[in-house]
Design a protein that fits this description.
Structural class of chain B: mainly alpha
Strand content of chain B: under 5%
Oligomer: heterodimer
Number of helices of chain B: 13
Shape of chain A: elongated
Mean pLDDT of chain A: 90
CATH architecture of chain A: Up-down Bundle
Strand content of chain A: under 5%
Structural class of chain A: mainly alpha
Largest sheet of chain A: none
CATH superfamily of chain A: Cytochrome c/b562
Largest sheet of chain B: 2 strands, antiparallel
Strand order of the largest sheet of chain B: 1-2
CATH topology of chain A: Four Helix Bundle (Hemerythrin (Met), subunit A)
Number of helices of chain A: 5
Number of strands of chain A: 0
Largest interface: A-B, 21 and 28 residues
Number of strands of chain B: 4
Order of helices and strands of chain A: HHHHH
Distance between the termini of chain A: 46 Å
Radius of gyration of chain B: 21 Å
Mean pLDDT of chain B: 94
């Protein structure tokens, strides 16, 4: 009986632990996808790649999708570990963090709705989206090496 | 015999005390250098202002864009030595530095000296500004005079007692304050000379990106190799061309990151680098390219991260 009890607790701890590790890995993977989408857009904006309306729309869509459920990837207990670069401010100022995610969701939704059809339209849609990245990273991330 | 020995020890002790007292005294700029400084040009001074990042500390925390020109101070800098509050450096005659002379300003920037001859803490990165040309300091002074006076009153720093004695900083400066360049370069290469000037001088990249010793002096043997953040939290990355640094970045990658805030992996800068990048974006493109050329030129050094328990 006692063994079973401790076994259950141990299993519970392990499940909780791996759920936490998953949350960290998931949010990092989500952001990596956002970074990749950013790369597609930057190359077009800088003239290193030809303008491609479909690819641009896909990139904005990737970013917008990233915001769905994003805040749920920051449960209590994932402040450290798993090479996270998150700052404790995500938990200290949850409302501020959620507002930053919502702003990113709104700005990317506007870019998706705009569906830029040429390079100038892309540049116009790009600026407001790009400003979200460092505004959030300035406050809610801590550099680690 | 004993009496003589005691006298000798006493004399030596006194001599040492006098010596330390003299060493810890103020060492202002020579009069002839101040006289040759020139009148300063406010338009050129604006570039010096963005290169120097004054707004990243002297404007309100998190200030963006032109709010960085409101230099009312009170911005807290949390360091291992205590919390410093950047003072008001707006041209307000009572609460800012509007009543200062240009010479007093030059001594603050290049020698870390207050108008009354006392020492500033190196939380004010005069350790880098000491490499600046006095003509640039004169231009900066002219530009600062064009900004809006702000009437906020300075906050006292929040420091443990042992760090609250400014005289002791004289000894620290004797050890660590130098106007000599860190990295040897081909002095005929104008781009490298400009890059070195910006990085080691006004842009003070080494203040954050170089590890420090126990008493807060920059460890020049590990120049730009990264280290624990001197202010705030975390570990500041290595920006030497080592594989543990930014060896894989091209000069164009570096210049673009300073312009846009994006790394070659399209991660965006975070933490204190956001404000620095925002300043760098205001410089002429040639200055960012010069910084990039210099960063490709410095000696590659491997990152040495302090081992943290449980990691």
């Amino acid at each position: 009986m006692r063994k079973l009890f401790f076994g259950l607790i141990a299993a519970g701890v392990m499940v909780a632990g791996s759920a936490h590790a998953d949350a960290i890995a998931d949010r990092k993977a989500t952001m990596k996808g956002v970074g990749g989408a950013m790369g597609t857009l930057v190359r077009m904006v800088r003239g290193q790649a030809d303008f491609d309306a479909q690819a641009a729309l896909a990139a904005f869509t990737t970013m917008n999708n990233a915001t769905t459920g994003f805040v749920d990837l920051f449960p209590e207990g994932t402040e450290t570990g798993g090479k996270t670069t998150v700052s404790a401010k995500v938990w200290e100022d949850r409302a501020g963090f959620e507002a930053a995610v919502n702003k990113f969701a709104g700005d990317t939704a506007a870019a998706v709705a705009a569906a830029p059809a040429d390079l100038d339209a892309l540049k116009a849609a790009f600026g407001p989206v790009a400003g979200n990245c460092n505004a959030c990273h300035e406050v809610y991330r801590i550099p680690q090496q | 015999m004993m009496r003589r020995l005691a006298t000798l020890v006493g004399i030596l002790g006194l001599a040492a005390a006098v010596f330390l007292w003299v060493l810890s005294g103020p060492n202002p700029l020579p009069d002839e250098e101040l006289a040759a400084m020139g009148d300063g040009d406010a338009a050129r001074g604006e570039t010096v202002f963005w290169a120097g990042g004054c707004g990243s500390c002297h404007a309100a925390k998190g200030a963006k864009g032109d709010d960085k020109l409101t230099l009312g101070g009170r911005h807290p800098l949390v360091t291992p030595f205590g919390t410093f509050y950047a003072p008001n450096i707006s041209p307000h005659t009572e609460h800012g530095i509007g009543a200062w002379t240009r010479d007093q300003f030059a001594n603050a920037m290049a020698r870390g000296l207050a108008p009354d001859g006392s020492h500033y803490y190196p939380a004010f990165p005069y350790t880098s500004y000491a490499c600046m040309e006095l003509a640039d300091i004169a231009d900066l002074w002219a530009f600062l005079g064009t900004l809006e006076p702000v009437d906020t009153v300075n906050l006292d720093h929040d420091l443990p007692l042992i760090f609250s004695i400014r005289r002791g900083l004289g000894l620290w400066k004797w050890l660590f304050l130098s106007d000599q360049p860190v990295v040897a370069i081909d002095e005929a290469d104008a781009q490298l000379v400009r890059g070195r000037y910006l990085v080691e001088g006004p842009a003070h990249c080494g203040e954050c990106h170089t590890p420090r010793n126990l008493i807060g002096g920059v460890d020049q043997s590990r120049w730009l190799a990264g280290g624990p953040a001197p202010e705030g939290e975390g570990f500041i990355p290595n920006i030497t061309p080592h594989e543990t640094g930014i060896g894989s970045w091209t000069a164009d990658d570096i210049a673009f990151s300073l312009e846009s805030g994006f790394t070659p992996e399209f991660d965006s800068f975070g933490a204190s680098m956001v404000s620095v990048q925002d300043n760098m974006a205001r410089l002429p493109a040639g200055d960012r390219e010069a910084i990039a050329a210099y960063l490709k030129h410095v000696r590659p050094v491997a990152t040495r991260k302090p081992v943290e328990p449980g990691q």
